[in-house]
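Re: your question from the hallway

Yes, I did run it. Sequences:
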Amino acid sequence: MHPAFSVIFLTTLIGAGQGLFLALFIVESLSIVDILPKQTGSFYATGSLLALVFLVLGLFASFFHLGRPERAWRSATMWRTSWLSREVIMLPAFMFFLFLYMVYHYSVGDTVAVVAEHDGVRATVLAGIVGSILCVALYICTGMIYACLKFLQEWHTPYTPINYILLGMMSGFTLAAVYASLSSPQLSKFFAGWAAILIVTATIFRLASLARNKRLKHKSTIKTALGVRHTKIRQTARGAMGGSFNTREFFHGKPPEFFNAVRWFFIMCAFVVPFLILLLSSSSESFILFSIALLVQYVGLLAERWFFFAQANHPQNLYYQSIS
Amino acid sequence: MTQLALIIDLNICVGCSACVTSCKQWNTSGTAGPMVDENPYGAEPTGTFFNRVQTYEVGEYPKMETLHFPKSCLHCEDPPCVPVCPTGASHKRESDGIVLVDYDKCIGCKYCSWACPYGVREFDEHQKVMKKCTLCVDRIYDEKLPEAERKPACVMACPTNARLFGDVHDPESEVSVTIRESGGYQLMPEWGTQPANHYLPRRKTHTHIHEDELIRVDNPLKKEDIPKPNRDEPSLEDASSW
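Structure:
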C-alpha cells in the first residue's frame, strides 16, 4: 500500500495522546489507593491538555486524507458495519471525556486531590473511567480498520490491533515521562519504568508480527486473478500507459533496499534506542534525555507506520505487475 | 431478486479497447460529471477509467498465447467495499444488485478501494470522490432509448460481441445459460466475494483422431494385405470381404 502521511501522523499522534491519558489516569487510580503519591489537580489538567493537543493534531492530520473534508460528518453514519465510522465516533467521544477530565481537574486546582473530601475528584474519576473505556475502544477501532480487510493478509491478524494498543501506550508513557520530569519529577521514574516495560512488550509483539508476515503465503495468485491455470503468465499491458490510481495507491514506490532499511530503522528508533535511554536515565530523571528518547521514538514510530502500510501487499497489485 | 452483470468471453475478446473508450465517452458525458484526465497529451497521461483492457502472455514462446483481459467492477454479490464505507456512499442496490457510489455522499477517504481485492475503483482527482463502473445505470433504464440499446456502453461497443449483459439470477437468461454451458467462472473465488460478473475461459476445439480411424481395416484406399478368412471360417464383419 502507499503510505499516506496524513494517516501516519493521525495514528501515531492520537496513539501517543491516548497513551498519555491512560498513563495519567493509571497514576490517579493508583494514588487513590495510596500506591503512588497524590498529585495536584493542575498536574492532571496540564497533562490532559497535552494529550488533547496530540489528539487535536491527529484529528487535524486526518482531514488531509479526505478528498472532501467538508463532508466528514457523514462518516459517522455507518457505524454498524464500518470500523472507520466507529473510529470517527470514538475519537471525538474520547476527546470530549478527556476534555471533561481536564476541566474537572482544573477545578480541583493546585490542591492535592483527596477522593472522599472533594466532589471534583469523584467527577474526575468518573470521567477518567469513561475516558479509559473510550480510549481503549478507539485503539481497537483504529487497529480494526486495517485488521478487518481480510485480503490484506499482512494486516488481517490480531497483531494489528494489539500493536496499535502497545505502540500507542508505549509512546504515551514516554511522553508522560517527559511531562512528569518537568512537573512532578518523582513520577517520571514510574512513567519511564513502565515505558521501558511497554517498549519490551511492544517489541515482542511487533517482532512476532514481522515474523508472521515473513512466513505469510498469499492466497491470491495471478492464476486466481485471471482464472487461467498456467505457471508462466506475464503481463504485457496494464490498460494505461501512464500511471493510474491503481498504480499509485497500492504501491509504496520505493526500492526494496529502502524498504528493508526502514524496517531496521524503526526497530532501532522506536524500540532499542529509547529503551536504552530510558534505562540509562532512570536514575537521573533528566528532562533532556527523556525528550531525546521521545523524539527518537516518535520518528521511529513514523517509520514503523510507514513500514506497516508499505508492507501490506494488496491483491490488486497482481493486475499491475510491471510496477512494484 | 435481480443481479445484473456482465459476461466477458476471453475466447472472443481481441483487446481492441472499444469498450474502454465507449465506457469513458458515455460516463464522462453523463450527469455525474466528467471523469478527469490529467496531462492527456503529456509524457505521463493519467485519468479515471471504469474499464480497462489488460494484456497477458500465457506460457512461453513458442507455446504462448495472448490473453486480453477487460477489467471493470464485478458487482460482487457480497461486495467487501460496501460495509467498510463510513458514509454509506458506497452501496449495493436491492433492486438490481448494481454496486454504486453516491458521489454526493463520498468523502474521498479511499477506504473502499483498499477493501476491493480487484482494484476496480478509481479516485477522481478533480471531484475528489471515488468512482466506479455503474453498469451504465443511466442507460439501461432509459426508456427514451430503443429497447435494444438499453445495455451498458461497453456491451454496445464490443465489435466481437465478447460482452454479454443480463440477469445472472434468472436461470434461463442468456447470461446464466452461457455461464452454465460455457464454463463461466469468477475472479479470485478465494475471497468469497461472489462476483456477479463472470468470465468465459479460452476454449479450443480439438479433434481427437484415434489410430483406428487412420488405419481403418476396411479402408479401400489402403493397399495393405488384409487377411481374409475363408467362407467357412468365423469372421468379423468389418474384416470380411463380402
